[in-house]
Write a structure and sequence with these properties.
Length: about 190
Amino acid sequence: MQYVVFDVETPNCENDRISAIGISVVEDGAIVEQFFSLVNPQTHFDSFNTQLTGISAEMVKDKPTFDQVWAKIELLMGGGVLVAHNAPFDLCVLAKCLRDYNIYWKASVNYLDTVRLAKNYYPNLPNYKLNTISNYLGIALDHHRADSDSTATALILCDILSRGAVDNYIRSYDLDKRPQPPKVGGRWIF
């Protein structure tokens, strides 16, 4: 089975735009492909988010917008079960971006949340933050950097996969909860 591990960074507290995305594809217990891009979110940056992620409006002003990045990663993202650390957050941001850019992809996706997996496979940790699990497993992490976070999450997934099956942890996430308008050419018509 293929797992598409991804992490997004956001420019502000609205969490409806992406300023960076990192993707690590896992097959047979190993990372086989990676992707990273800064993204011009076409919105304002909160100082908190800039301080947390190190990404500023100046850094992304000439970077591709979400729809341009999506054109490059759509096939990659659709290649398997999506995985993220605290997956509902990343999936929610992805769903909002897809809707805001009028991109229809899928009505729902299957996903795994490494927070939930870690609670089962590493029951004695003090918490299940990405940096705590990474430290426990000896994984290098430059936290809140989408490429580093997706790589660390992928390595955590690889460790968990080596310990047993994860199929019973797969959930479904509804990407578009609104009534579905007609589609033309794979895009919603508004």
